[in-house]
Design goal:
Blueprint: H1 2-17, H2 22-39, H3 44-60, H4 64-80, H5 84-100, H6 104-116, H7 122-138, H8 142-154, H9 162-178, H10 182-198, H11 202-218, H12 222-235, H13 240-256, H14 260-277, H15 280-296, H16 300-316, H17 329-333
Length: about 350
């Protein structure tokens, strides 16, 4: 069927262009999506192969409602066909989308659905355990998050895709990091790295470097932190969500180097980008860091304003706010604001 071949060609073009030209990648997969729809093809597996990159690209350009709409449409068709593996993939993607938006209740319900389905695969259950761990992590319940991520890692086997191995180890590393267990966190990142390379997942490679930079910053290895941040930036040139994380981290490095104005510039940039994309957790982080930076230069008015924004964000996300007064400022500057997760990892 010529239309089928054309769809596959457009899909291949999309994957080639995601990093160098995401806008053209979006146009290619969008064309494939509507061609599939026009041809009324009865191929649910091909539908999900188109839907997942299409939804992710829509999301990356801030078209969140459209992203969820195509995911739910595909999920309905997969359910009608009783195609379990496709349902697993789509439920995972929907949960991740809600998680990234800061809607942890919705995300948790979809991951709980995956855990409750006896017919679902170990891969689906492993992904759901990671997801539930990410939610516990986001609410500051780090011990519970660690236990869930350890359960997820225990389910890994050689038949599972490399990208899942990378994801499980990165999330375990994030929990160890939040518990100040730097050695264990670094070890998990080292285990994750070859899997991320094998999967050719540039975003995961970027995440690994970001966490390595954070560990270096916490252990007073500023030069190493700068090196790892540079590697994170080089690993994935087009990564709008990752760029926010890099800006926040770069700002923290500037703070540690007593370059407060440059730090404020980074935090403002991160806040603007997070606001554009609707990433609630990163907006919260940016407000918190801006408050600390303004406190550092003695601008009490702006420090209090940013801290008020941070507190409001905490209330919306049902999280406890950290203190941010002059007595705790020095300690806070040496610690990150709560790291509330990445698109694929906590």
């Amino acid at each position: 069927m010529p239309q089928h071949a054309e769809i596959l060609s457009l899909l291949s073009k999309c994957h080639r262009l995601i990093v160098p030209d995401p806008e053209l990648a979006l146009r290619s997969v969008e064309e494939a999506y509507f061609l599939f729809d026009d041809c009324k093809l009865n191929d649910v597996e091909l539908l999900v192969r188109i839907t997942l990159p299409y939804a992710r690209l829509l999301f990356s350009f801030g078209r969140v409602d459209e992203s969820l709409a195509v995911l739910f449409k595909a999920l309905t068709q997969a359910a009608l066909c009783s195609h379990l593996s496709v349902q697993e993939e789509l439920l995972q993607e929907i949960a991740l989308t809600y998680y990234t938006l800061g809607d942890y209740q919705e995300a948790g319900e979809y991951w709980a659905d995956c855990l409750s389905q006896d017919a679902f695969s170990d891969v689906a259950k492993l992904n759901a355990l990671i997801g539930m761990g990410m939610i516990q992590f986001a609410h500051g319940h780090i011990e519970q998050a660690l236990a869930l991520h350890q359960r997820a890692v225990s389910l890994l086997n050689s038949q599972m895709p490399a990208v899942l191995h990378a994801r499980a180890w990165i999330n375990l590393a994030s929990a160890f990091f939040q518990l100040n267990q730097w050695h264990e966190s670094q070890h998990a990142l080292v285990l994750a790295f070859p899997f991320a390379q094998q999967a050719k997942n540039q975003e995961f490679i970027g995440e690994i470097y970001i966490y390595m930079a954070k560990i270096a910053l916490e252990t007073n290895s500023l030069d190493v932190a700068k090196q790892k941040l540079a590697q994170a930036k080089a690993s994935c040139a087009e990564w709008r969500w990752g760029d926010i994380l890099q800006q926040l981290l770069h700002g923290r490095i500037f703070l540690a180097s007593q370059q407060v104005e440059q730090a404020i510039f980074c935090f403002k940039n991160a806040l603007e980008k997070a606001s554009e994309l609707g990433f609630a957790q990163h907006m919260m982080d940016a407000h918190h860091l801006l408050s600390m930076a303004y406190q550092r230069i003695g601008n009490k008015e702006l420090a209090e304003y940013e801290y008020g924004c941070y507190q409001t964000a905490c209330i919306r996300m049902n999280m406890p706010a950290k203190a941010c007064d002059s007595h705790t400022m020095q300690g806070l500057l040496s610690k990150p604001a709560p790291s509330l997760g990445m698109l694929h990892c906590a």
